[in-house]
Amino acid sequence: MRAQDIQGLKAFLRAREFLLTHRNDYDSAYRNFVWPELDKFNWALDYFDTLAHQNNDHALWIVDENGPEVRLGFSEMSRRTNQVANFLRRHGVCRGDRIIVQLPNVVAIWEIMLAALKLGAIVIPAATQLTANDLRDRLDRGRARHVITLLGLTEKFASLLGDYTRIVVSGEEKGWRPYERAYNEPSCFAPDGDTHATDPFLLYFTSGTTALPKLVLHTHQSYPVGHLITMFWIGIRPGDIHLNISTPGWAKHAWSSFFAPWNAGATVFAHNYDRFHAKRTLDMVARCGVTTMCAPPTVWRLVILEDLKAFSVKLRELTSAGEPLNPEVIERVRAAWNLAIRDGFGQTENVLLLGNFPGETVKPGAVGKPSPGHRVVLLDADDNLSDDGEISVECDPKPMSLMTGYVDDEERTSKCFAGGYYRTGDVAHRDADGYFTYVGRADDIFKSSDYRLSPFELESVLIEHPCVAEAAVVPSPDTIRWYVPKAFITLKPGVQPSRNVAREIFQFVRDRVSPYKRIRRVEFSELPKTISGKIRRVHLRGMELPSRQNRRPDEYWEDDFQDF
């Protein structure tokens, strides 16, 4: 390791040690934490391989309901990722190349992330739920040169022509290179040059107010180093066994199933299942001695339906992120386990910005206080500091945890970083004690089951239906998913609202979008409009947001159709 690389590693380790030392002292951590100054730094080569040297502690532990249980030590993970890096290089993956990685929680997804870091390649994470159209967008706008996916998902690429490398995991497929051949490669890896901390590493596609997702670019420091803060928030310590319930392909998986636990030297724990069952997961948490756990509110709302006192868990820290957590859920868990679920807020574009931290009082309904390394303020409509406004981060200097920007969208990037702040697009209130309470999105985007959804994208699909004249999508309260997408629809002249028309529209959308994006409710009506002819979505949201038991006329739910 060259002198500059050693200096980068030392700076990273100092920041890591500071946060671990002050893990129960938020005030000192927030007041005194400073980001490490990095020039050349490769998290996988410099930090992970150093951590892994002669270290046989478990790095990864996967429990699969339909397959074998897998445990791999840090030393073995380091060796295997060297082999994967050599394999990818043999098949044309070069520094700066973009790779679509579409895999579930299998060992390969962790190996590929580490191998890509070592190579200097750029990963485009892709959820297994994505449709062929979603993947085409990632190939085209993402300019991906390589694709790695699971056997059984390769058919999604059958219609996607192009000169891109095709690699298949867990089997063989004509025209695809078997990933398992990577384990025949040499176990020593030599990088082809230096990695700068600001070199690109991750490219996420995340929903925006337009029909197409935004392209969020992260570097070798923004996520690998930035998620020291996520480690601090969750309270992960060396030797912990950490479970994060999150789908690969989305940013939260990188947050808490990769960087945060490994920054602490903890075991990444994954539980694979066809469908989430709270009892099965809780049985597994108890049996395997999981000590720290992070899950979206959707999961916690299912967990509290079980008799929590019946599970002999060894949990020490519980966290939640993705959407506001109901206070009653926190109290149910506290009553059973004497543990508080600590809420947090962050985005694909950054790391944990606000949170309830270990040792701090948890205020029901509050998302917490600013995280170390981030000066978080609220800006009103006139860009004045306020106790009510848009959650924003001071950028003088810019925290290294923030994204580089939106790829191929200078206008959006400039707007996001205008006036010396990073502007999240989310609105909050701050009380006299400095606690922030999340209010909602500044635009129309909302979350459902921890997935960020764009109404415009769904409306664009709906108006393609031959019976639909206009459509507006808003969040509708749901006891499990927090919110689900509901479409208010004006039908074309001559088409009458009916159960059959509703069924056709549900099926039409199901055939065209990923499962997590599906319209779950429809209501046929004239859409309210402004004097200039714009749809008044704020009025529709106001109609829908109060939870109610009775449906209005011409309202249908996807659950009404049992044959779906």
Q: What's the arrangement of secondary structure elements?
A:
Layout: H1 3-21, H2 26-32, H3 43-52, E1 58-64, E2 70-73, H4 74-90, E3 98-102, H5 107-119, E4 122-125, H6 132-140, E5 146-150, E6 165-169, E7 177-178, E8 200-206, E9 214-219, H7 228-234, E10 241-244, H8 251-264, E11 267-272, H9 278-288, E12 292-295, H10 297-303, E13 317-321, H11 327-337, E14 341-346, E15 352-355, E16 369-370, E17 376-379, E18 388-394, E19 405-406, H12 410-416, E20 421-430, E21 436-441, E22 446-448, E23 451-453, H13 455-462, E24 468-478, E25 482-491, H14 499-510, E26 521-524, H15 537-544, E27 555-557
Parallel strand pairs: 1-11, 3-4, 3-5, 5-6, 6-7, 10-11, 10-12, 12-13, 13-14, 25-26
Antiparallel strand pairs: 1-2, 8-9, 9-19, 14-15, 15-16, 17-18, 18-20, 20-21, 22-23, 24-25, 26-27
Helix pairs in contact: 3-4, 4-5, 7-8
Structural class: alpha/beta
CATH architecture of the largest domain: 3-Layer(aba) Sandwich
User: Measured on Cα atoms, how large is the radius of gyration?
Assistant: 24 Å
CATH topology of the largest domain: Rossmann fold
CATH superfamily of the largest domain: ANL, N-terminal domain
Low-confidence stretches: none
Biggest sheet details: 9 strands, mixed
Q: How much of the residues is beta strand, in percent?
A: 15-25%
Distance between the termini: 57 Å
User: Can you tell me the CATH class of the largest domain?
Assistant: Alpha Beta
Shape: globular
**Counted beta strands:** 27
Total helix count?
15
Order of the strands making up the biggest sheet: 2-1-11-10-12-13-14-15-16
The overall average pLDDT, rounded, is 93
Helix content estimate:
25-40%
